[in-house]
Amino acid sequence: MSERSALLSGIGIARSYGATPALRGVDLAVGAGEIVAVTGPSGCGKSTLLHCLAGILRTDSGTVTYRDQDIGLWSEAARSRLRRTEFGVLFQFGQLVPELTAVENVALPLLLAGSGRREARQVAAEWLDRLGVGELAEQRPGAMSGGQQQRCATARALVTQPRVLFADEPTGALDALTGEQVLGEIVRVVREQGTSVVLITHEASVAAYADREIVLRDGVLDPTGLGLGVGR
Amino acid sequence: MRPATLARLAVAGNRTDTLRTILTALSALLATVAMLAAATVLTITGWAERYTNPLLIEPGLRPGVSATLILVALPVLALAGQCIRLGAPARDRRLAAIRLAGATPRESVLIATAETAVASLLGSVAGLVAYLVARKVIDRPALPTDILPPAPVIVLLVLLVPVLAAAAGAVLMRQVIVTPLGVERRIRTRGPRPWPGLLIAAGIVLFAVPTRLPEHINLSKNWVYAFLGSGVMLTMVGIVLGTGWISSTAGRLLRRYGRGPATLLAGQRLITDPWNGSRTMAALLAAVIAGAVALAYRELLATEFRYYDIYNAMMGSTDGGGMGAAEAPEFYYGAIRLVVVAVSLASVVAAAGVLIALAESIVARRRTYAALTAAGVPRRTLSAAVAWQTLTPLIPALVLALAAGDALVRLIDSEIPVGYEFRDCVAAGYGGCEAPRHPEMAQILHVPIPWGSLALLGGGALLAVLVAVGAGLLVLRASTDLDELRAG
Predict the structure, then answer these.
(1) Strand, helix or coil at A10?
(2) Nearest partner of B91 among B356, B359, B364, B481, judged by Cα
(3) Which residue of B has its CA nearest to A117?
(4) ipTM of the predicted structure?
(5) Among A95, A100, A111, beta carbon nearest to B100
(6) Can you give the pTM of this predicted structure?
(7) pLDDT tens digits along B295-343
(8) Are B101 and A91 within 8 A, CB to CB?
């Protein structure tokens, strides 16, 4: 992926936690509609890279550019607005508000963006239907299985029709079969919409859904590129 | 974000959130009623002989009655402030999830403060309704149910509590950074400094201004009240903030000289969060200072009554007449008793606040406590750590509060000379002066320090906190359940 055609790119991204470096100059570019898997062993900086690219964390050095804009220069509020309009974020667990129903959770980004309640709920209900959990619209997350929660979380991440979806081990808390079903639905929907995806995983079966794989080791890109086997 | 969205997100919550909302509303209700009552008393004009209560009849006594009612309102307001942190961990997780969905930092603080403001407003409105109903139900001769404060004052008081509660919530949230990945608290790298001592000194100086001015400088009554009031307030603020430094210092001493894991845990907690004592003990310390002022003032009054008795005896007025208020001391003692009752009520409310704060801090660390228990730390060690952590800064802070309250009153008068003016008059050679009738009675009356009463006040406050700690330790037992390790 050349940087000229990249929708999202990171150049020389470095980030430390105290004296411990997590990323030490990582370059990455993601094109429109492309699914990129980031793999590597535990503690290699995969999640930190995703957080930096999504604007959740600021980099210590290097730049993160989205549509030719350096989002590292943006305020926290501006990056929050970017996440609710242009980006979708999907974690392993914990992103649903336990006190809100499924439909309210999915409608949340729309409501935060200023949509009316009725309109937001209608769109949210459509997304829940699309991901096969429409009948759970009025259930709270505590009453759902892990797979159902992850489908709801996916609906919430995609409800604003983001250009980029950041998925950090999205099926890590699910059993193999449910994980595959959920991931299949995620990929189906993002392909339909032309959404780019940055997919963090350490599972070969998950990485296999990506168009391209990059491998991180000790906070840097592995030059050998010997990852989990995408494209091989 | 639309107001409807804000309201929905603000009221979303679990049972603890519901409890927090109820307690916040309840404390707002009580504070509003107390403040409306204070405003009603201040609305009475002139001699009001239509009431049977002498404290309401005399114009000079009514500001004191109002101040006493406000004194009750203050710890209730502080309780409302402490309720804001109840169930905070679950709310923090919810806010982080909302941030992940795209809420800005400002919006997340707005959601948290809106919840407090809405609960307080409901409580305030309920307080107004309770006040209006009570006016209809209660008889006039005893209480001023025939008058109302001006409408703008009522509106102001009803809005005051929600605004203060929302502001307190926003201030408490300023240490909390809600990120989409969770909630972090800002860690101070430097411990508190003893600068609140300057506030205490400034408070004492302000209080001393009207009492130590040369006689030829006359301050108006309003200026005198302003100096005395601001002096007391600054002293209170100084002591409350000074508790941060006391906690930090006590923590360092505990860590250095303490024996065993309980003192080590308590010492480190005090160093890590030295302002916890200021937050949780603020209302109690304020009540203790007010109580110490009242008790010391009672001693001053008693000394003045002795002065009047001696003076009247010297002048030959032994038939119950004569100078001063010595003929009706019970009335003044009754007023002081009213203040002491208010302080006692305030202390009980403040102790409830301590319990809430303690329970919240234990619940917030329940996984750590459960992990320590799982690792073999006995529960009694954790209980001892919580007790050390609460009581170590409290005891010196209480002593300081009692000393400051007494010192303020001693600035008004610490000794009253009897008979000396006549002796001086003769020595100056003024022809019109009489010789002292009873020169053997010339003496200086020292205003005693009410050691017993002060010890009782301090002991009562300590006991209230001990009860709160005891109740809080029940929460600790539940929080060290190993199931907590599985909680999300």
Answers:
(1) strand
(2) B364
(3) B5
(4) 0.75
(5) A95
(6) 0.68
(7) 998 898 888 888 888 777 776 665 555 555 555 677 778 778 877 888 8
(8) no
